[in-house]
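@channel sequence for tomorrow's demo:
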Amino acid sequence: MQTPKHHSDVRGWIAPVFRIMLEWLTWPGIIILSSPRVSHDLSDQEHLAFSKCRARTVDTFITVCVAVELLAFVTIAKSDGWICWIPIAFVTWRILDVMATALHVSLFDEFDTSKERYVHSAPSRVILLGLLNYVELLICFAAIYAIDATLIVPTNTSIKSAFADAIECPLHLSCITQLTVGYGDLVPSSWLRFITWLQGASGLTIIAILIARYMSEVANSSDTSAEQSEEPKLPLSHS
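structure tokens (generated this afternoon):
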């Protein structure tokens, strides 16, 4: 029996199948952003330059997505008819893309560095992007709740009058669900109950992945700094 060259080669069949599913879910985003993998033939300077360029592209992409999600939320809450299905399709895709990308990066990218080279990212940037993804989930799930706000049932008459607004009511339900506070003022009914289950699980998963990724990036940065400190110092160039 051949000994695996790397511990990441021992995966059984569940992990490879799950990875294929995640890659299939994230391919629309990869088409827009380009792959985070780079060739081993690139020099360190070219690798760093590519990483900086992709970081700017990713930041712009997420910023645009947040703006479109807000517009989609308002459109769904204020409009009726077929036009709502376009923003509904967008926020649904964005939820799947955020979760699939976060899981893929957390579960597989670090192990795949034994075979492929990935872009660099600062630990502080990882935290900020993770927080933006968390906010995106809040907005996207609120947009889904806004499809039929009548399914959000207030627990008494006074609360019903307080949450009569078609925007505030879904947004409040989304916040208390993802933050797991549950004040008991609003209760989802019918198919919205299953959506709240998904949102609660998604929010907790994003937080767990965010902490794990930050710790991993800090450890990788420390290792890189230690390796650089052991290398002989070269004279600085002003060119």
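heads up for whoever presents: The longest strand covers residues 152-154.
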